[in-house]
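Recall that a protein's primary structure is simply its ordered list of amino acids. Everything else, from secondary elements to tertiary packing, is in principle encoded there. The following example makes that idea concrete.
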Amino acid sequence: MILLCVAPGAIVSDAFAQAIDPAVRTAAAAGPVRVIIELRLTPPFKPEGELSSPAAVEAQRRAIAQAQDDLLASLAGASFSVGRRYDGLPLMALEIGADALARLEAAGALVTRVSSDSPRFRQP
C-alpha cells in the first residue's frame, strides 16, 4: 500500500526531470541560458478557438497570468530575467542561471517543460 502512495509522486518528478532539455542543463552550468518555460495550467490549456466563449478566453488568460506570477515568485532571489510573458499561451521566455534552473526543477507543479531558446538550425 505504501508503494502505491509514493510511486505516483516519483513518476511525476521523474517525468518532469526528463522534460528539461539536456542542452539547458549543460548551458546553465556554464552561465546564463535563454529558455522557454511551458507552464502547467489547471484546467489544461486549450487553444482559444476551442474555448466556448469570450469569458472562457478571458478566464484562461487570467489563469496564464497567475501561473506566470506564481513562477516568477518561485524564482525570487535567483539569477533570472524575463525576456517575454505571453498573453494567450502558457509560456514565458527567461534567461536563467544555474540557481534558477534548480528552482525550476523544484517547481514541477508550476512547470511542464523547460526548453532551450536558442536556434537549433542555422541557415547558410
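The mean pLDDT is 84. DSSP finds four helices and four strands in the chain.
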